[in-house]
Amino acid sequence: MPPISLAAIAIAFASEWLADFVIARALFVMFAQGLLTDGMTEADFVRVYKEVVETTAFIPWAMVLGSATTVAGGYLAARIAKRVPYYHGLAMGIVGVVYILALWEAGGGAIQYFGLLSTIPLSILGAHFARKSISPDQ
């Protein structure tokens, strides 16, 4: 098996995680709009969160943008490593699946299953896009 750059995987995963974090927070604020107020209790926040997730297009947008960051993570890992892009895409996908399983919530819904099934193929797709810009002599 060709050597995998652990640094490339770590940098790409951290970048993907940060992008997912920022995007999820921005989506929540966008869909919550006037429901968020200063001095909210934790119970109020949980109620608003459930309302946003259950009554808006939050989940489809989160799935689309999360898929985009997964593709970007596979791309970034392959570009940083500059060699064996598909292995780096696969490694990113495996790290993503392990992360999903580590944070698995009972009753989490379809988004968890979608993530579990799509992470590896989307990461490899990102690596495929990177392959086109990696010269074969590297």
Features of this protein?
mainly alpha
Q: Separation of termini?
A: 17 Å
What is the number of independent domains?
1
Strand pairing plus helix content: what structural class? mainly alpha
User: What shape does the CA trace take?
Assistant: elongated
Largest sheet descriptor = none
Question: What order do the helices and strands come in, and which of them pair?
Answer:
Elements: H1 6-32, H2 42-55, H3 58-81, H4 85-102, H5 110-131
Helix pairs in contact: 1-3, 1-4, 3-4, 3-5, 4-5
Q: In brief, what are we looking at here?
A:
With 138 residues, the chain is mainly α. It is built from 5 helices and no strands.
What do these coordinates show?
The chain is an all-alpha fold and 138 residues long. It has one domain (6-131). It is 76% helix and 0% strand. The protein has helices at 6-32, 42-55, 58-81, 85-102, 110-131. α1 (6-32) packs antiparallel against α3 (58-81). The longest helix is centred in the N-terminal third of the chain and has 27 residues, at 6-32.
